[in-house]
Amino acid sequence: PVLVVDFGAQYAQLIARRVREANVYSEVVPHTATVEEIVARQPAAVILSGGPSSVYADGAPQLDARLFDHGIPVFGICYGFQAMAGALGGTVTHTGTREYGRTQLSVDGGVLHEGLPATQPVWMSHGDAVTDAPAGFEVTATSAGAPVAAFEDRARRLAGVQYHPEVLHSPHGQQVLSRFLRDIAGIAPTWTAANIAEDLIEQVRTQVGDGQAICGLSGGVDSAVAAALVQRAIGDKLTCVFVDHGLLRAGEREQVQQDFVASTGARLITVDAVDTFLGELDGVSDPETKRKIIGREFIRSFEGAVSEVLGEAAEHGGAVDFLVQGTLYPDVVESGGGTGTANIKSHHNVGGLPEDLQFKLVEPLRLLFKDEVRAVGRALGLPEEIVARQPFPGPGLAIRIVGSVNQERLTLLRHADSIVREELTAAGLDGQIWQCPVVLLADVRSVGVQGDGRTYGHPIVLRPVSSEDAMTADWTRLPYEVLERISTRITNEVPDVNRVVLDVTSKPPGTIEWE
Ligand code: XMP
């Protein structure tokens, strides 16, 4: 792999993603990893990430100069660039002038920026600057605040840049990273969806052997792709379980029961738990109570199905030892599995693991980012409706009805939601939108007029957001024509709705969901 050493500024994961976008496999390691540990992984290259603003800051992580004794190609970024310069005998000066944000870079020679514009915008964020490059390095770019803004030593396969090539504000950054990987480090771009799928299928085969496995399908991308991989690896020894809690959107049950099964050939058990869920949710309007009920009932239903599968296996003298989970790489990194800067997000997936069931976990996606999961899904032949699906919360439409949940309200919301999805897709906007919750304010009524009569109906809220990771988000500026079409259709076609409103709040302060 290419190892990205995380100096703790949240850029490391993004760098790893960009390296993979260049079709080279990459992982994040904490800056506390020793040179011995890094060398033992036999990295194709090492990338030193950004970090604190100054190498002179209190407690700034140090770079062990012995890293450069092993002939490993190294690329330094921002803090990593300065740390690299310092370790190799260059000069890093505390200049006192900070350079922050969009900056003009002047390029002069070298391989990294070859063929790119001589002056180009890049994203800077630094207080110190490299004022002398180490011996053997050619200085190939400068900026107003950085006399040495990029350097390279092709013979030793070392290079670095002061700016952040991984962020979108550095429009040529991805090319620069690719240049390093290909032209300086000499790495072949073989990390492609088809290869990934093949490797993962082989790994699952090795892990599970002759064993049997079970997988809960949520209707979402991750569990579908995980299940599809395991199905390819072990065929009918995988049983998929889908709990229909009645809180899904229009067509989603069919997607799992028909499209998923048709494209994978997987064995599927559907648990129809709609009445149980709606019964338990009756009269409940507090969001957290809804979540608790749904979580509890989900585990119950799932466990019921699991014991059936276990019983069936036992009849044939077998056992089910493995549980498939669609855990992704960001979850692994964020729960401390990959870096020193654990930034723990609360994972509020419905269900979680039934605690008293003893399974070994199969997590074929644990080293993949979301876009890679989608690419692997496509390589496995999963339909676009599943692979391109936007995130949808485990508790489903229950947390998009502000007020208590019942069948009538669900039907109404499902109808409005399907109109929104249809229109956004027809307008070609899916790619710009992270997700678009459609919310029913079930306890609010407002006066309207339709035909000759006064109406007293409910509002529907549209909440289109753009985001990279759901941690922060901005409201998406949808074209007025599209909003107009959605509004007209919802008020005409959905009974009891006489108003459509648009949520124009970013996150923070708003969350993406209304509950
Ligand atoms: P918020 O509303 O916290 O949402 O800004 C961030 C992301 O998480 C999803 N979300 C959930 N997902 N169970 C889930 O599986 C939940 O209870 C839940 N609540 C929010 C939300 O759709 C968004 O993608």
From TrEMBL:
Residues 191-389 form the GMPS ATP-PPase domain. It catalyses: XMP + L-glutamine + ATP + H2O = GMP + L-glutamate + AMP + diphosphate + 2 H(+). Its EC number is 6.3.5.2. Pfam families: GATase, GMP_synt_C, NAD_synthase. ATP binds at S218, G219, G220, V221, D222, S223, A224. InterPro entries: Class_I_gatase-like, GATASE, GMP_synth_C, GMP_synth_GATase, GMP_synthase, GMPS_ATP_PPase_dom, NAD/GMP_synthase, Rossmann-like_a/b/a_fold. It comes from the Bacteria. Pathway: Purine metabolism; GMP biosynthesis; GMP from XMP (L-Gln route): step 1/1. The active site is at C78, H164, E166. One of its GO terms (molecular function) is GMP synthase (glutamine-hydrolyzing) activity. PROSITE patterns: GATASE_TYPE_1, GMPS_ATP_PPASE. Gene3D superfamilies: 3.30.300.10, 3.40.50.880, HUPs. Keywords: ATP-binding, Glutamine amidotransferase, GMP biosynthesis, Ligase, Nucleotide-binding, Purine biosynthesis. The keyword Transmembrane helix does not apply. The keyword Ligase applies. Catalyzes the synthesis of GMP from XMP. Homodimer. PANTHER family: GMP SYNTHASE [GLUTAMINE-HYDROLYZING], GMP SYNTHASE-RELATED. This is GMP synthase [glutamine-hydrolyzing].
